[in-house]
């Protein structure tokens, strides 16, 4: 059953081409959607409209039975039930972690505010840092405070606008695991906007791809991986190797195997790169000007030699131009 709905959203800034072109998305209660799109595809605009902070030209946002009004329709823009967390979160610099988290609860009963803050501090592993000022925290810890603050009002929906893009990968992985667990426990419905698919995959397998203001594919991670609608979606997951003499057919590096004997597709290893999980071979396919990326998990193959390759035929992708 859908809970948070964006229906036929259309948005154009002044004379520009549409930034959002008939975007429809619906999320079930507690669902976390990863929204992937390149820079300028309209992700932030969509989130701001979803939060009631930007006025759309057409279309409707609903949360359960509530129609989310745009700033053009509502005196004070935005809703307590729908919180937006930005990359440039703004913590109050002279307030402690605990005070920052309690800040949206100023009008609430003090005992409730303290109880809610304690719960969130514990959930995000911030209890020991509660008396620190924001400048005494790492970037990741500050971002967790911003997310905990957004959760203080018990919102139904949390919208994340690339909140971790400035963090380094190990820090990010750990935080994504913590955030996923916290969101699951609180049963929050969310949209996680990113241009980095691997971030989204750490959190959810429910994905949508936004390209030039249109949702070009929506589905599970497996669905998008195995049946991408076009190269754009396919290349979010890996590079693509074109098949010789087979227009529009591609194979992912992970579906190519180096054979111990001859009999497969012959190639010449031009370069070997050491990557964390395998060596990546750059292989020129014999008799063509095609170059493939091929993983060598054995790390035994040297440059400047021939190899015989086998592809998994079931994994061949047929994609439009
Ligand atoms: N207030 C505005 N006035 C005019 N044009 C705008 C405004 N805000 C955004 N745009 C334009 O709308 C398009 C989409 O912007 P938006 O910020 O929604 O994209 P995005 O996918 O979030 O990009 P990024 O990943 O770089 O943040 C861009 O071309 C941008 O220049």
UniProtKB/TrEMBL annotation:
Keyword Acetylation attached: no
Gene3D superfamilies reported for this sequence: P-loop containing nucleotide triphosphate hydrolases
Keyword Nucleus applies: no
SUPFAM superfamilies hit by this protein: P-loop containing nucleoside triphosphate hydrolases
Molecular function (Gene Ontology), one example: ATP hydrolysis activity
Domain ABC transporter, chain residue ranges per copy: 4-237
Keywords: ATP-binding, Cell inner membrane, Cell membrane, Membrane, Nucleotide-binding, Translocase, Transport
Protein known as: ABC transporter domain-containing protein
């Amino acid at each position: 059953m859908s809970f948070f709905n964006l229906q036929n959203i259309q948005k154009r800034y002044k004379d520009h081409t549409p930034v959002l072109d008939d975007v429809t998305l619906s999320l079930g209660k507690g669902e976390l959607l990863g929204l992937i799109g390149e820079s300028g595809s309209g992700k932030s605009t969509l989130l701001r409209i979803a939060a009631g902070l930007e006025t759309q030209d057409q279309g409707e946002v609903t949360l359960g039975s509530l129609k989310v009004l745009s700033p053009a329709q509502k005196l004070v823009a935005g809703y307590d039930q729908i919180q937006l967390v930005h990359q440039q979160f703004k913590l109050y610099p002279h307030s402690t972690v605990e005070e920052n988290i309690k800040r949206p609860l100023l009008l609430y009963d003090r005992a409730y505010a303290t109880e809610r803050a304690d719960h969130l501090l514990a959930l995000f592993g911030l209890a020991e840092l509660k008396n620190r000022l924001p400048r005494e925290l790492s970037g990741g810890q500050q971002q967790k405070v911003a997310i905990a603050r957004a959760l203080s009002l018990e919102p139904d929906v949390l919208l994340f606008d690339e909140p971790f893009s400035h963090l380094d990968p190990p820090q990010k992985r750990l935080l994504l695991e913590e955030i996923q667990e916290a969101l699951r426990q609180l049963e929050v419905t969310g949209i996680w906007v990113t241009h980095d698919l691997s971030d989204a995959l750490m959190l959810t397998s429910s994905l949508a791809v936004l390209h030039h203001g249109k949702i070009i594919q929506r589905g599970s991670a497996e669905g998008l991986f195995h049946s991408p609608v076009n190269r754009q979606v396919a290349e979010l997951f890996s590079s693509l190797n074109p098949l010789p003499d087979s227009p529009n057919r591609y194979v992912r590096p992970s579906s190519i195997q180096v054979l111990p004997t001859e009999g497969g597709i012959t190639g010449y290893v031009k370069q070997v790169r050491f990557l964390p999980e395998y060596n990546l071979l750059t292989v020129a396919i014999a008799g063509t000007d095609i170059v493939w990326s091929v993983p060598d998990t054995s790390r035994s193959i040297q440059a400047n030699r021939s190899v015989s390759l086998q592809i998994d035929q079931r994994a061949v992708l047929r994609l439009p131009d």
